[in-house]
Give the backbone structure.
Amino acid sequence: MEFQLTDDQAMVQKTARDFATLEVLPKAAEIDRDHRFPKELVARMAELGFLGIAVPEAYGGGGMDVVSYVIAMEEISRACASTGVIMSVNNSLVCDPINRFGTEAQKQEWLTPLAAGKKLGCFALSEPEAGSDAAAQRTTAVKQPDGSWIISGTKNWITNGPVADVCVLFTMNDRAAGHKGITAFILPMDTPGVRCGSPDDKLGIRGSKSSQIFLDDVRLPDSLLLGEVGGGFKIAMSTLDGGRIGIAAQALGIARAALEDALAYSQTRKTFGKAINQHQAIAFKLADMATEIDAARLLTLRAAWLKDHKLPYGKEAAMAKLYASDVANKAAREGIQIFGGNGYVTEYPAERHFRDAKITEIYEGTSEIQRLVIANYLTKGA
Ligand SMILES: Cc1cc2nc3c(=O)[nH]c(=O)nc-3n(C[C@H](O)[C@H](O)[C@H](O)COP(=O)(O)OP(=O)(O)OC[C@H]3O[C@@H](n4cnc5c(N)ncnc54)[C@H](O)[C@@H]3O)c2cc1C
């Protein structure tokens, strides 16, 4: 077992840390306050190769491993959780399924610009009546005599939706077949009949734009089918397994931000004649935060390593997301406590971390769903 980063991974970490510290962090408060999509940071992530890190270079990606993706995600989310999720969706939820299930022609046409950051992607599985119960899809896809498909329905909460060029879309083509009736498509967002609702007004990750997507008799050629007819559920679930590693890394970044900001504050704020980190109650909080963050990082890197080695990783990814999101929420809550009254106002970053942390327990499977996934693996003896 090896706990040291390779030279390549260390280089990714340095590049991501420099970018996050020098370019992302100075803008994070403003992005949050103004609910601003950080277009210029997305362009820089494209230049740095962060929008398709683990995609082969032949398809426009960075040709790196999933461990490198985790490392970069943590650094960028430490500076700005909104920028982190924009990156995570493009890598995990869009490039990854097209890389694994797309035809050669689809990879050339769609994966290559997505991985290079020339296009931005979104992933549309959730619907008003299908969140945790993803198999309850109501968006219909009906095959036409000429071989094309007509798609109608509504998708909910789609991260990057309002700013995306391409969508990995899930539909129901045979409701009687249950989850085996789900079919995936690559949807160009400028296809006639596609419309995004107003951006969601969110508690946190306010720089990330999400919205409903309305699909009104959208016609797609059969060449945009992703995988097989009826194979969409498998694509969605396996994609979310990988996505959870990315969200665990986002949670790690938020937790680290909460710790680092609280630690710095605790060294300068004085009460009763000494810095508050000299009070054991505060010092122990910081010690617990640091220990739990390390444990969450190890779980996350283990899941990434398993994926890199083509070993089963579904249970480990669910454990990483479950634990890291819990750690992020706890660290953010304790961070506010360490800041005292200053933790409760927008002048300091602690309240932003608290608002940003919450989403990591909700999207790509709530914490309850992660527990169900883990328990199912245990029942199967895995
Ligand atoms: C900001 C944001 C961005 C998002 N981005 C995307 C995106 O890009 N693409 C996408 O497809 N989706 C996206 N989502 C949707 C997200 O994945 C869902 O919100 C999430 O899966 C939960 O579904 P739901 O909101 O319908 O809640 P529900 O499924 O209605 O769940 C409500 C509550 O019941 C619990 N629950 C449900 N079923 C069970 C069960 N069997 N056992 C125990 N508890 C249960 C849940 O854990 C939760 O606490 C996003 C959501 C948000 C808020």
User: Anything to note?
Assistant: The chain has three domains: 7-115, 121-232, 234-379. The CA atoms of residues 148 and 222 lie 5 Å apart.
